[in-house]
């Protein structure tokens, strides 16, 4: 398979998995509305928006560098491993510092960004999720750089199904509301981090 064909195939797989995940999420929406109040939806939406923006701050947008420099270092395995290790360590430390600052400035966060939401447990869980979501994005960028479209698609679908299952368990069976959604995200992202370390 030529390089162009591989890029096209992998792009198609990324698009397919993204559309499928969004479609399944849309289908599950009526199920979630049975268990989540409008306030819970507001909390999860706010946290999701915050984490979506904060991942780029935590990662300093190094995700693009992982894809870009894979082409330069792919023939030098030692240099590539060092590069990946440096980025992963930096993103982990950056995430930990960001979460630590969030903890120290919790009164400012609750007054400015998360008005009306308790720091414990919602914002604390959101800050922990941020660390592991940033590392998740690092691993996905590595796989994109390595042109591992099939593997990435399978991982994304598995990750989504696990998170949807835990969401239903925590909000349906345990009635944890927004905290349940955040706990599901934290559990799945920590599990993904363990998988990432084993995979790399």
Give the structure's gist in a few sentences.
The chain is mostly helical and 200 residues long. It has helices at residues 3-35, 38-59, 62-73, 77-104, 106-112, 119-145, 149-173, 177-199.
Protein traits:
single chain; mainly alpha; about 200 residues
Structural class: mainly alpha
Radius of gyration: 18 Å
Average pLDDT, to the nearest integer?
92
Distance between the termini: 25 Å
Q: What can be said about the biggest beta sheet?
A: none
The number of helical runs is 8
**% residues in beta strands:** under 5%
Helix content: over 70%
Order of helices and strands: HHHHHHHH
Describe this structure in words.
The protein is globular. Helix 1 (3-35) packs parallel to helix 7. It has eight helices and no strands. With 200 residues, it is mainly α.
